[in-house]
Amino acid sequence: MLTDAHAHLTGPGELSYRAHTRTLFCGTDPQTAAQILALQGDNALLSCGVHPWHAQKVTPGDMLPFIRQSAALGEIGLDSVWTDADMDVQRRVFVEQLEIAEALRMPVILHTKGMEGEIERILRRYTVPKLVHWYACERYLEDYIAQGCWFTLGPDYESNPAVQAVLRRVPPDRILTETDGLEALAWALNRPVAADEIEEALRGELRAIAAVHGISEAEAEQRVSGNLDRFLTGGKSRNQQAAGG
Ligand SMILES: [Zn+2]
């Protein structure tokens, strides 16, 4: 089974192109979270939270009913590059959601664009599993690794040196694959991408992981799938797991 640990849903029809993929779909506001919830199944899981781009439009309270039905909380974080959202509001919304994650023992998925150093320091206060999505900064990678973060490999791993550093330096038991959805995939590859290319894109990431760690593509596939399991269950107590909660 392939793993897409972070994707935005383009439309319900997309699921038919993900027959061999377990996807953690990301809802960034109540509308997209509800859309994903309606599709949720064994291979389509929900993660949701207030995206930093929406920090002034959506509150953590708006998202809480959906967060409670999610496998993970996020993507959440800070962004100083791709949004004009007020940074103090972003910080407040981010920390509020980290507190929710900690209280509910939910793993978090992080968006760190341009704010990598500050986010790394904030995260040290939190003990839930942390997945850094598409990390693409030349600095701080070792600090994130040192505090036990998981990582998704950005789809531009062939052209982006910072993403290649993630590929080389993150331990194989903490790396996952992602597309970030069709739009992001098209952005990463700088060409239009069709839904029937999703699984091949994930296989390409697996081949890159396999090559770096000297394992087969099949073994990389298995490891990445196991990494998603451990990321998603690591935030729960033994009692919750025993109760299936
Ligand atoms: Zn995303």
- The fraction of residues in strands falls at 15-25%
Gyration radius, to the nearest Å? 17 Å
On the 0 to 100 scale, the average pLDDT is 95
Would you identify the regions where 5 or more consecutive residues have pLDDT less than 50?
A: none
Bound molecules: zinc ion
CATH superfamily: Metal-dependent hydrolases
**What coarse outline follows from CA principal-axis ratios?**
globular
Number of helices: 10
Instruction: Give the total of beta strands.
Output: 8
With strands numbered from the N-terminus, the spatial order across the biggest sheet is: 1-2-3-4-5-6-7-8
Gist?
With 245 residues, this protein is an alpha/beta fold. The chain is built from 10 helices and 8 strands. The chain starts with a strand and ends with a helix.
List the helices and strands and how they pair.
Elements: E1 2-7, E2 21-27, H1 30-39, E3 44-48, H2 60-67, E4 72-77, H3 87-104, E5 108-111, H4 116-123, E6 130-132, H5 141-146, E7 150-153, H6 161-169, E8 175-177, H7 182-189, H8 198-213, H9 217-233, H10 238-242
Parallel strand pairs: 1-2, 2-3, 3-4, 4-5, 5-6, 6-7, 7-8
Helix pairs in contact: 8-9
The chain binds zinc ion.
